[in-house]
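User: Here's a structure from my thesis project, written as C-alpha cells. My advisor, Dr. K., wants to see whether a designed sequence matches the one we expressed. Can you design one independently, without my sequence as a hint?
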C-alpha cells in the first residue's frame, strides 16, 4: 500500500471513529477525544521540530547555489530572474485573491467551532502593529527567532546568510554548503520516519474534530480539494501566455508540446521524474537548442516551482477561512515572503516528503494554527497532481523565454505546425 493510501486510510478511519463516538452519547465522545488528542499532538510536534533546521538549511543552500548559477552566465541569470518574478507574481496574486475566493465558499459554523475547541488552546494572539512588524523583520537574535518559530525574520536571516555564503572563498563555501546539505538530508530522514506513522497521527488529530463537528468536516475537506486544485489549475493556465507572449511560441505549438510532460507530471507527481520528457519536448517539439534546454530545465527542476507560493499561501487562506480568521495585510505579506523564499529551497520530491518544509513555515508566518496540517497532508495528493503539472508547464514556459531572449528562439510556430501536419499525413 502506498504512503498516500495509508494516510487517506488514517483520515477515513478518524472520520468514521469520530462520527461513531458522537452516537454513543453520555460524554463518551469527549472522553475518547481527550484520550486520543495527545497522540495527534505528539505526531504534529515531531513534524514541527524538523521545520526550523530543514527550512534554514534548504534556504541557505538554495540561495547560495542560485547565486553561483547566476554568476555563471547571462542565460542562467535570466532564468533565475524569471523564476523570482513568476514566483513573486503567483504568491502575491494568491495573497490578494485567495481570501476573497475562499470567502465565497459556504462555511459550516459547527465545524468551525469544533476546530477551535479541538485546538485546546487560548485564542490566537492578536496581530502586532505594522510598526512592530517592520521593526522585527530582522531578528536581533537568530537563535531566539528559531526557538520562537518566528519564520519571517528567520527566513530573512537565512536569505542574507545564503547570499553571503555565495561570496566567500570557494573552499569555505563548499564546506558550509555541504554541512547544511547534510543537515537538510538528516532532517528529511526524520521527516520520513514521522511520515511512516502519519496514518496514526492523522487518525488521532482528525478523530476529535470529527467527533465534535460531524459531517461539516467532510464538507470542509471537499472545499479544500476544490479550492487548491482550482488555484493550481489557474497558475498552470497562466503559463501559456508567458510562453506565447515572451517565448515567441504559438499557443497551439506550446499546448501540444507541454501535454506529454503534463501527463507524466500529473500521474507520478514529480517534476524531477518528468525532466526527461521535458527535455525531449523542448528540443523536438519547441525547437529549443539542446545546449539551452539542457541547462535551463535542470535548473528549473531544482529551484523553480511556480505553483509553490500559490499552493502554500492558498493553504493558509483556507485555514484562515476554516477558523473564521480575517487575515491582516502583514500576515498575508509575511506568509507570501516565506512561501517565495522557501520554494527556492524545497526539493523536487513527492509532496508528502517536502510538505513539512513548505506548509508549516507559511502557516507559522501567518500566525495560523497548525492543527489542520493533518487534514491538509491527507488531502494534498489531489491538488499535488495539478501542482506538479503546473510546475512542468512553468519550466517549459521559462525555457522558451530564455531561448527566445538569447536570439535562439524556437522554430517558427508555422513551421512546427506544418511539420506536425506532414508527420500526421504520413
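Assistant: Designed independently from the structure alone:
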Amino acid at each position: 500500500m502506498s504512503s498516500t493510501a495509508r494516510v487517506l486510510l488514517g483520515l477515513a478511519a478518524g472520520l468514521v471513529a469520530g462520527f461513531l463516538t458522537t452516537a454513543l452519547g453520555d460524554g463518551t465522545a469527549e472522553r475518547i477525544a481527550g484520550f486520543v488528542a495527545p497522540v495527534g499532538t505528539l505526531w504534529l510536534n515531531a513534524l514541527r521540530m524538523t521545520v526550523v533546521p530543514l527550512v534554514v538549511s534548504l534556504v541557505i543552500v538554495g540561495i547560495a547555489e542560485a547565486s553561483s548559477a547566476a554568476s555563471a552566465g547571462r542565460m542562467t541569470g535570466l532564468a533565475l530572474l524569471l523564476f523570482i518574478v513568476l514566483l513573486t507574481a503567483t504568491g502575491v496574486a494568491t495573497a490578494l485573491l485567495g481570501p476573497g475566493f475562499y470567502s465565497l465558499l459556504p462555511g459550516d459554523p459547527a465545524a468551525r467551532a469544533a476546530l477551535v475547541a479541538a485546538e485546546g488552546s487560548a485564542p490566537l494572539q492578536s496581530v502586532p502593529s505594522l510598526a512592530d512588524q517592520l521593526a522585527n523583520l530582522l531578528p536581533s537574535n537568530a537563535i531566539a527567532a528559531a526557538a520562537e518559530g518566528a519564520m519571517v525574520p528567520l527566513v530573512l536571516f537565512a536569505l542574507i546568510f545564503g547570499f553571503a555564503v555565495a561570496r566567500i572563498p570557494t573552499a569555505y563555501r563548499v564546506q558550509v554548503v555541504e554541512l547544511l546539505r547534510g543537515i537538510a538530508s538528516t532532517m528529511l530522514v526524520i521527516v520520513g520516519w514521522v511520515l511512516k506513522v502519519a496514518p496514526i497521527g492523522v487518525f488521532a488529530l482528525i478523530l476529535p474534530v470529527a467527533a465534535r463537528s460531524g459531517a461539516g468536516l467532510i464538507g470542509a475537506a471537499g472545499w479544500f480539494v476544490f479550492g487548491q486544485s482550482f488555484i493550481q489549475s489557474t497558475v498552470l493556465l497562466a503559463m501559456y501566455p508567458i510562453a506565447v507572449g515572451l517565448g515567441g511560441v504559438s499557443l497551439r505549438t506550446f499546448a501540444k508540446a507541454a501535454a506529454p510532460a503534463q501527463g507524466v507530471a500529473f500521474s507520478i507527481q514529480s517534476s524531477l521524474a518528468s525532466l526527461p520528457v521535458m527535455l525531449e519536448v523542448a528540443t523536438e517539439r519547441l525547437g529549443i537548442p539542446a545546449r539551452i534546454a539542457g541547462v535551463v530545465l535542470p535548473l528549473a527542476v531544482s529551484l523553480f516551482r511556480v505553483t509553490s507560493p500559490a499552493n502554500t499561501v492558498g493553504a493558509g487562506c483556507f485555514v484562515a477561512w476554516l477558523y473564521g480568521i480575517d487575515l491582516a495585510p502583514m500576515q498575508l505579506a509575511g506568509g507570501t515572503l516565506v512561501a517565495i523564499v522557501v520554494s527556492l529551497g524545497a526539493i523536487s520530491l513527492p509532496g508528502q516528503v517536502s510538505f513539512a518544509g513548505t506548509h508549516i513555515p507559511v502557516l507559522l508566518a501567518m500566525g495560523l494554527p497548525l492543527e489542520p496540517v493533518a487534514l491538509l497532508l491527507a488531502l494534498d495528493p489531489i491538488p499535488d497532481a495539478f501542482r506538479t503539472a503546473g510546475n512542468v508547464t512553468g519550466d517549459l514556459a521559462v525555457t522558451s523565454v530564455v531561448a527566445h531572449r538569447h536570439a535562439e528562439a524556437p522554430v517558427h510556430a508555422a513551421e512546427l505546425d506544418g511539420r506536425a501536419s506532414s508527420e500526421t499525413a504520413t
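When you compare it with your expressed construct, this may help: The radius of gyration is 22 Å.
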